[in-house]
UniProtKB/TrEMBL annotation:
Protein's name according to its UniProt entry: GyrI-like small molecule binding domain-containing protein
SUPFAM superfamilies, alphabetized: Probable bacterial effector-binding domain
GyrI-like small molecule binding domain boundaries: 20-206
Organism this protein belongs to: Enterococcus ureilyticus
Gene3D superfamilies in the cross-refs: Regulatory factor, effector binding domain (3.20.80.10)
Source organism superkingdom: Bacteria
Pfam family name, one: GyrI-like
Coiled-coil regions, chain positions: none
């Protein structure tokens, strides 16, 4: 049976259009960090690098070359941690996409080890060279208690959803642990109209 994160891990990835509190467990990711406007060519190439690596792992698992037996699954969605640069915050500058600092990532199955991850990185780089591969990291991340909510619409209107999340936190005596936030991209921007885009928004709380 094929493992589908949209079905088996629905609570983690597909919330409704209202805030919820959730405990996000330890997860493994291929990650890439950068700064600047995500609409540029550099960001696009970084995303391509992560997907190539993720599909490489998926093929190894499907063929039974890693793990105890063949395992078929859907590649996890692209995620991004977003914040403003320290300089932009310190100077109180007006919002500029050039000041964005990000870490983009794609989750990998729990049975993937660092050894497997970097062996795959080497193999994929030989078949499909990408200069961004040298910046890729394999990380284990545990977010813990978070508030998350589904945002439907263009990225430029996420502020409205964050306002709803902030009211929820205030009502439940929760406070953000960081100024950064996570976005999980559930829609393909090349195929879906901006007003129908679905993005899960999440940040850790205490």
């Amino acid at each position: 049976m094929k493992f589908e994160w949209r079905k088996q891990e629905k609570e983690l990835y597909l919330p409704k259009e209202k805030p919820i509190k959730i405990n996000v467990p330890e997860q493994k990711f291929y990650t890439l960090s950068g700064q600047g406007d995500p609409n540029g060519q550099q960001f696009s190439e970084e995303v391509s690098a992560l997907y190539a690596l993720s599909y490489g792992i998926r093929m190894l698992a499907k063929k039974g070359l890693i793990g105890k037996e063949p395992f078929e699954y859907s590649v996890y969605p692209l995620e991004g941690l977003w914040a403003l640069s320290d300089e932009a915050v310190a100077e109180g500058r007006a919002f500029d996409k050039a000041d964005l600092v990000y870490k983009i990532m794609i989750r990998q199955p729990d049975f993937i080890t660092e050894e497997i991850a970097f062996a795959n990185l080497e193999q994929v780089t030989k078949k499909k060279p990408n200069p961004n591969n040298q910046k890729v990291k394999f990380e284990t991340i545990e977010e813990g208690i978070c508030v998350q909510m589904l945002h439907v619409g263009p990225y430029s209107e996420e502020g409205k959803t964050f306002e709803v999340m902030e009211r929820y936190c205030s009502e439940h005596r929760l406070s953000r642990k960081t100024f950064s936030h996570r976005e999980i991209y559930l829609s393909d921007g090349r195929k879906v109209a901006p007003e129908k885009m679905k993005t899960t928004l999440r940040y850790p709380v205490k």
